[in-house]
Amino acid sequence: MDNIMVIGAAGQIGSELVVELRMRYGGEHVFATDIKQAPPDIMEGGPFQVLDVMDDKQLIHFIIRHKINQIYHLAAVLSGNAEKLPTQAWKINMDSLMNILEVAKMVEEVKKVFWPSSIAVFGPTTIRRNTPQLAVMEPITVYGISKLAGERWCDYYYNKFGVDVRSLRYPGLISYKTEAGGGTTDYAVEIFYEAIRHASYDCFLGEGTSLPMLFMPDAIKATIQLMEADRSRLTIHSSYNIGGMSITPAQLHKEIQKQIPGFSIRYNPDFRQAIADSWPQSVDDTIARIDWGFEQKYDLEMMTKIMLNEIKNKLNT
Ligand code: AKB
Questions:
Q1: Please, are residues 88 and 139 in contact by the beta-carbon 8 Å criterion?
Q2: Which of 44, 124, 144, 312 could cysteine-pair with 278, CB 3.0–4.6 Å?
Q3: Nearest to 311 by CA among 303, 220, 296
Q4: Which parts of the chain register pLDDT below 70?
Q5: Whole-model pTM?
């Protein structure tokens, strides 16, 4: 059985991925790490260590000591936050990936790496509807530039050194367990909390802003499916487009109103509007479907019902 390391285990994706990986492969085989303490189930359900992925010596020591065979590197500064501290965000996003790629190149036992890319690799000159896998890529955000550079490095390490690195261009991810932090698509998570807490929400994107979104269970399933796929079937070594549902704040508002009729929304677009306007409204994920069987189960209606129920339980309302 492989030993798996997850970096960024306290984050939005990590906190759900670790639980799923431990269920599949056994708690003792999934080593959760983060720069900070994680939720109790992550720290208690198997090995957990506070670790800084920027510290290459600590990283390599950990990987050798625990005989790690697979790494999921999820730590990153997201689009909104990265615009506030561009040089720091660039450094964190790039140096951490380079540390991982170098370790994977040097340590023979490391067989596979997962690293998330994003729809942020695209920019205003890209076709915005049904954006193809291969398209013009001129991102206008620091985050997008770091993801595009990261994709090129992943492809380079695959071709040059045979590092088996796999990646998905995540759309906005919607989840109830851990709140996202600092992204442009985060409105689609915040809206649920505010609907339940205050029956009103100040949205930082305009009502018609359409972006691709995926419910977290679909994202977790896709991530593991890609990592478990036979290497010979994979034709993309930069990062795969995965679609999801295209939704606008107005559509989400309407869907939530079915359960909270008095829920109101005010639109106050901020600097994130320009970011959202530069991203695809929908993406074409045909290659992911053909290569390793990507499929999406949840639509807007199913996802909204689950989000509202789970967050109500969590907030005890
Ligand atoms: C963000 O909004 O920055 C992220 C992303 C789409 O990569 N959720």
A1: no
A2: 124
A3: 303
A4: none
A5: 0.97
Name the segment(s) of the chain with CATH classification 3.90.25: 174-213+246-280+298-315
Cβ of 131 less than 6 Å from ligand 1: no
Q: How is residue 233 written in tokens?
A: 């079937």
**Amino acid identity, residue 262?**
G
Backbone φ and ψ of 86, nearest 5°: -55, -50
Tens of pLDDT, residues 111-149: 999 999 999 999 999 999 999 999 999 999 999 999 999
Q: Atom 8 of ligand 1 has which residue's CA nearest to it?
A: 172
State whether the Cα torsion 139-143-146-150 is positive or negative.
negative
Helices 216-228, 14-25: axis angle to 10 degrees equals 50
Residue 79, ligand 1, Cβ within 6 A? yes
Q: Which residue among 13, 175, 186 has the greatest number of ligand 1 atoms within 8 angstroms of its CB, and so is best to mutate? A: 186
Amino acid type, 219: A
Distance CA 13, CA 17 (A): 6
3-state secondary structure of 229: coil
Q: Across the chain, where does the E strand assignment appear?
A: 4-7, 30-34, 48-50, 70-73, 112-114, 117-118, 165-166, 168-170, 172-174, 200-203, 211-215, 240-241, 245-247, 264-267
- At residue 181, the pLDDT reads 86
> In angstroms, rounded to a whole number, what is the distance separating the alpha carbons of residues 109 and 112?
9
Tokens for 97, please give them: 């990936």
The crossing angle, in degrees rounded to 10, of helices 142-161 and 86-106 is 10
**Fold held by 174-213+246-280+298-315:** UDP-galactose 4-epimerase; domain 1 (3.90.25)
The pLDDT of residue 223? 98
Domain at 4-172+214-241: CATH code? 3.40.50.720
Residue 157, φ and ψ in degrees, nearest 5: -65, -30
Query: Which atom of ligand 1 approaches the CA of 82 most closely?
Result: 3
119 lines ligand 1 (CB under 6 A): yes
